[in-house]
Amino acid sequence: MSRDQRADDPAALQEALGSFVRAFGLHQPETTPCGRPISVSEAHALSELEQEGELRQVELTRRLRLQKSTVSRLVGQLSSRGWVERAPAPDDGRGVVLRLTPAGQRAARNLAEARRERFSRLLGSIPAHERAGVLHALDVMVEALDE
Amino acid sequence: MSRDQRADDPAALQEALGSFVRAFGLHQPETTPCGRPISVSEAHALSELEQEGELRQVELTRRLRLQKSTVSRLVGQLSSRGWVERAPAPDDGRGVVLRLTPAGQRAARNLAEARRERFSRLLGSIPAHERAGVLHALDVMVEALDE
DNA sequence: ACCTTCTGGTTGTACGGTCGAACCATGTCC
DNA sequence: GGACATGGTTCGACCGTACAACCAGAAGGT
Q: Which Pfam families match (chains A, B) (predicted)?
């Protein structure tokens, strides 16, 4: 099948993506694909917080694309694990600022390490000269999905 | 961070993939990304059955990467919607052979159509000069996963 | 033949992530 | 200052999934 024909057959893309999602275990969101006893959403939250240092809860909601109620509970779980601190936002009396505790930073690093191993294997299966293109393509798709 | 550094960092891949999964709404498995009142797993099951015509239940379990109990219930739901028929396997007294009913075939076609539209819109949001690259990147990833 | 083990399916139970709605407090705008 | 919008929390419900127990049929060895 030629390249142009494939571009006109979006179902093939869905097929491939569906297989990918299942192969990665993403259909079971309560365990991370890396085998850690932590949910996918929690892992993403940890990752965002580690990267940003501080994050407004509403911003986390936006990035995770969840309802605010869900994020509230999610943060509550992370907090009761001792991984996240909530502080009142200095510039907005309604807001909450989230930050990782030292224990949370350790957890995030451990998680990142497990993730790194898992994805190293996947990345290793991608020819080196294709890697940048794959990453760029995923960025492009996310951007497209936001419109 | 330069492009090459990023390309060799598995965390970047995870980042990109995580964003994509969330942007696509896959973190909410009880509604299909196409906005249909049908779960992602049901959609996949329908798709597999449409493609294969007939499928042993155990084979569906394998393809969907679910537990057999989950698939049993899943099939029960599709059956009570009148979309799937169960018949005893001719060569194995334990087995169950699944097949789409006419209504199920219609549902599968409708679903495929909705999916097509969704992906067409997605493709439409991707700058034309990026499309070939994105399609190619997806191919590469699927290939990498099959190893 | 018989016993054991494996395999495909079903049912019961529990868990957990997500949403929507109701509600409160605070910010914003006319 | 009143109306509306925004950030968070809590409550209730839904649903997909796993695990375990169980049953029935197949497979293989003695």
A: MarR_2
Contact A10 B122 (CB under 8 A): yes
Question: Of A111, A112, A114, A82, nearest to A99 (Cα)?
Answer: A82
What would the pLDDT profile of B32-59 be if each residue is shown by its tens digit?
655 567 888 999 999 999 999 999 999 9
Of the candidates A83, A84, A62, A82, the one whose C-alpha atom is nearest the C-alpha of residue A71 is A62
Q: What is the spatial distance between Cα A137 and Cα A143, in angstroms, rounded to a whole number? A: 10
**Taking the C-alpha atoms of A93, A99, A101 and A106 in order, what is their torsion angle to the nearest 10 degrees?**
170
Instruction: Name the band, by pLDDT with cuts 50, 70 and 90, for residue B25.
Output: confident
* Nucleotide showing the shortest C1' distance to residue B62 CA: C8
**CA nearest to A20 within chain B:** B142
Q: A 57-96 residues with CB below 8 A of B? A: 63-66
CATH of A27-120, one of 1.10.1670.10, 1.10.10.10, 3.20.20.30, 2.60.40.230: 1.10.10.10
| Full-model pTM | 0.79
